[in-house]
Design brief:
CATH class of chain A: Alpha Beta
CATH superfamily of chain A: Class I glutamine amidotransferase (GATase) domain
Distance between the termini of chain A: 32 Å
Helix content of chain A: 25-40%
Order of helices and strands of chain A: EHEHEHEHHEHEHEEEEEH
Largest sheet of chain A: 7 strands, mixed
Structural class of chain A: alpha/beta
Strand content of chain A: 15-25%
Oligomer: homodimer
Largest interface: A-B, 45 and 44 residues
CATH topology of chain A: Rossmann fold
Number of domains of chain A: 1
Number of strands of chain A: 11
Amino acid sequence: MKNVILASTSTVHGSGFLEYLYDELIASFDGIDHVLFIPYARPSGLSYEDYTSKAKLAFKKININLTGIHEQQNPENAIKSAKGIFIGGGNTFVLTKTLYDNNLIPVLKEVVETGTPYLGTSAGSNICGQTIGTTNDMPIVYPPSFIGLGLIPYNINSHYLDPDPGSTHMGETRETRINEFHVFNEIPVIGLREGSWIKLKGSEIKLQGNKTARVFAPGIPAFEISSGSQIEKSINNILKAG
Amino acid sequence: MKNVILASTSTVHGSGFLEYLYDELIASFDGIDHVLFIPYARPSGLSYEDYTSKAKLAFKKININLTGIHEQQNPENAIKSAKGIFIGGGNTFVLTKTLYDNNLIPVLKEVVETGTPYLGTSAGSNICGQTIGTTNDMPIVYPPSFIGLGLIPYNINSHYLDPDPGSTHMGETRETRINEFHVFNEIPVIGLREGSWIKLKGSEIKLQGNKTARVFAPGIPAFEISSGSQIEKSINNILKAG
């Protein structure tokens, strides 16, 4: 049974790394004393070692040990035998390329789909969508594919930002960018604001956290879904009504 | 002799499409009565026809005719025989993929390097760098390569934005993103603010417009260069001093 948390961000303003997620993590990782961390997204170019130290500290506060995948001899086996997995944020292109280069996409998909508890934040959530085609990140490396783990039938736009009505900047708003995505793609997109996460439990896909999420699908106006609602049902209701 | 304008944006706040560039265009496209427009970047998913109509209106005001490359039977021949070329903004990934899919990268590079006057705005400027690895755009399609035309020995970050010190958003600033690029790449990056453009005239590469530009290179702190300065010389001076 899938047991997955896909969070918009690791950190909300004014709080420590993962702190706002502790209650959810305690519930999701119940009975687990060890988590495998995948530091490949390297936020600000942080080394695997430094990023892993940071994650280790956060998990220590909820009494879970953590080691980095780079410390393991065989990353594929490390994923297979992991009791829980955490992929942190950073650059989605770097993360995707490193997972592909190490041939870890199929094994990750398999273990998470068959029940290994998973936490993704930011880039670590983006990679779980159908594609990484709605990341905000800069394409600083060229991955062999944009295809993600496909744990949900959507794409994620993490750190979703509402348009700033006072802006004089001519760069596209987030909404414009996602609408452009739908000129070329059919996949619905969940605009996940900081403080929100998607919770997969078996076949249920729920929005959690203290914000609504904005859903974009081709041919219908974007709409909001509230925390606690089942995303699949909400989208189907709107699609039927539209 | 190269004769190239690479602008951060097509439009500055409070002014019409290309309007702030008219004086520069009149000088650069002197003696030219016709320009080939490449609408492949499709801003907001705009059709080739609608985007070309918009560009046609703007060029009409400086007495230059314009036709879209999609109206031509053979796009490669259209580029070869063009008196001047304009690639407008939109999505850099869509532009790049369409140029590669139509095998137009080599011929574009050749004609612009041997003197066909060129205007790029936003995505149309990004594609002229070494790679498109510093675009702000969303990766809504998967191009066969991130390698650009390489008309300058840099990458461009168009619509460059300074960090907002009051922001509580946890998404990366532009500066953080470009610094992450330099963890994996050596290519210097020109952060080109809206209202600025790079002018190539032969071997000279000058910053133009009403703003300074921010230059990022691996291993040295980012620095500003002023309008009118020769970019290559400015960078070399800083590199020598550093």
